[in-house]
Amino acid sequence: MTINSISVIGLGYIGLPTAAMFASRKVKVIGVDISQYVVDTINAGGIHIVEPDLDVMVKSAVYENYLRASTCPEPADAFFIAVPTPFLTNGGDCDVPSPDLQFVESAARSIAKVLKKGDLVVLESTSPVGTTEKMAKWLAEERTDLTFPQNHGDDSDIRIAYCPERVLPGDVVRELVSNDRVIGGLSKKCSEVAIAIYEIFVEGTCVVTDARTAEMSKLTENASRDVGIAFANELSIICDTVDIDVWELIRLANLHPRVNILKPGPGVGGHCIAVDPWFIVSKTPEQAPLIHTARKVNDSKPAWVVGKVKIAIANFLLDNPQKTAKDLTIACYGLAFKPDIDDLRESPASDIAKSIIEIHAGSVLLVEPHIKELPEELNGGLLSNMSSALSAADLHVMLVDHDIFKSVQPMIGKIIDTKGIWKPLTF
Ligand code: SAJ
């Protein structure tokens, strides 16, 4: 199969790096996004997201005319769909959010118009089991003049596969090339064609399976991490109750050759680990009590940390009867959803900081070296530099273990350390 052009639908955290990666290998790429702002930014050689090294890649791809963005799908030889698959929290059983496939459906229906015989369509968006088959059905509904693998197998006009992205935010450019890929074609031929195209830039191994197993493998990877973190978070709460240093405990337990406990923290954030397990739970609620419970454990951790802050405020007032809460300065260290990135979306640290601002009458200093201004929802807090917070605060709340925080230690005040870097007062 000759590939003259590739189209990537959805130019977000996965789609844009994927588009830039193909373009960097001298393939003509048309990126499609519904946002005019995103399209204009990319066509001007810029990027709208933060990801190390991506800016340079996109800039040279655009200037060398290998990458172009548009709001309308155009003909191409292969289409990669990387649109969001959020979940809906207020429909049906409100305890279990359900996946929202509207962006996948509209992306599929919109590219259907420009499909031609021999084209490949790959779904990369994290999706519940069965979504690739649904996508194939939507494409077939739009194009009755073409044949599809669900009915024609290896002889189909259009090839369809699922291939989940697995890259780590903050290291996307490197991992896109080096990670192994799981490729689930709707037929053997579909998988073969998809592998040939991924091998344009993937240096890891492309492993073939069926589409449903490929969908489930992505959900399993993230659910496995979520369950592991929930175990660590539960341990941290148990240890706090029985007055044991959880970090020392985990270090000791991990000396066992077959034990590898993850790290507790203020909760699980980001756009993947805290979302994807719900795709399993919503489909098979009866069969997924462990995965469901892990989600609840991790989701409840921010409130537990806020509870600790409330106790610290009450203790301060007990210890200083002549003072009021206004006399207590609290500093929160880290607002991002994980260390050494500047992404504050879906961040338990930001949620905790917001709650502290709401409950506390005194000053709340917010230390986040990776941002220049606070988002609106943190109005009421004061963006501060690290050294002034370390010397001014009475209560230090460590929320994100950015590297820069590891070389310092508050010398005065109380510490609530959700990341175990400021021993000995840890939770
Ligand atoms: N976290 C902990 N303790 C840990 C590890 C992580 O509390 O021991 C927290 C982080 O602070 C963060 C959250 O979990 O709030 C998620 O961070 P992460 O680094 O585990 O994962 P993400 O969301 O940045 O990326 C994950 C990755 N999946 C796995 O590692 C299985 C990545 O490979 C996926 O491509 C990505 O989800 C995705 O897009 O699905």
Care to describe what's here?
Helices cover about 40% and strands about 15% of the residues. The chain has 15 helices and 15 strands. The protein is α/β, with parallel strands linked by helices and about 425 residues long. The mean pLDDT is about 95. Strand 14, helix 15 and strand 15 form a beta-alpha-beta unit. The chain has an 8-stranded mixed β-sheet with strand order 3-2-1-4-7-8-9-10, sandwiched between helices. The protein has a 5-stranded parallel β-sheet with strand order 13-12-11-14-15, sandwiched between helices. It has a two-stranded antiparallel ribbon with strand order 5-6. Bound molecules: ligand SAJ. Ligand SAJ binds next to helix 9.
TL;DR of this structure?
The chain has an 8-stranded mixed beta sheet with strand order 3-2-1-4-7-8-9-10, sandwiched between helices. The protein has a 5-stranded parallel beta sheet with strand order 13-12-11-14-15, sandwiched between helices. The radius of gyration is 24 Å and the shape is elongated.
